[in-house]
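Hey, resending since the last one bounced:
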Amino acid sequence: MRKFLLSLLSLLAISSTVFAAEPEPSKITHSFFIAGGETAILLNDGKPLWSYPAGTRDGFVLPNGNLLLALSKNKDYPGGAVVEVTRENKIVFEFKGTQSEVNTAQLLPNGNIMLTEAGPKPRLLEVTRDGKIAVEVPLQCQNTNHHMESRMARKLLNGNYLVPQLLDKVVREYTPEGKVVWEFKSPVEPKDSWPFTAIRLPDGNTLVTLTHGNTVVEVDASAKIVWQLTNADLPAPLLKDPCGAQRLPNGNTVIASYGAGDQKVKLLEVTRDKKVVWTFERDKKGGIHEFQILDTNGTPLDGVPMK
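The structure tokens again:
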């Protein structure tokens, strides 16, 4: 009996330690990468760990520690570009855009880089490490407004591509042959609910941010909305032009308010029941275009980021 009681007390002590280690919502911390007018990795306290001297549209911190960036067009890259850089900002891969903009970039398991080009001939490309085009998919979208053609395109596990098309107010899934096999049309209201980020979730649902509609939705395989977040669900109007988003392994969703302006809250994390459990606040004007959460409470995230 004595041995049993001692074992029980030891177990209770261990359990207490485990439960005590669980962070309270108010104590959640993240380090993260941000893309936009500012390109940087910020630590839990908001201080920069790394930065890049150019504006970006999209980006990933790669498993090798390098950064894959979709560069905004500038004097060096008038058509935008995709670059991979080391932490010392040495370029180890470069693909220069040939049209108006390069809006997305994703490293694929086979080593290719997937990107989108906006312009007279909007298209999605896979390019090899030596810059050769391996796959080209024409995008079926309006092309009078090049800037509003497409945003955060991603290659799916089934080999297809998920592409938000802003001014067309639709998210389309394309095959490598360019056939549309699935789509979600944005609601008519709120006005200008332009899709920006679309994330195919493990259960087959798709998470979509609707920029000027200040709304985030999750839709099922039939494109029916099964979850929705608006400012009416929040303690304050924190959603201002939600662009980037990421679904975390714990099921929470982090959202960037790109149109935050003078608003201090630039990123917010919400639970499935729409409770705000973390925010990133700063006095600096402007918002965050796209981002990647890198760790939570000092622990790196596992797996491929859902963003």
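The radius of gyration is 21 Å.

Sorry for the duplicate.
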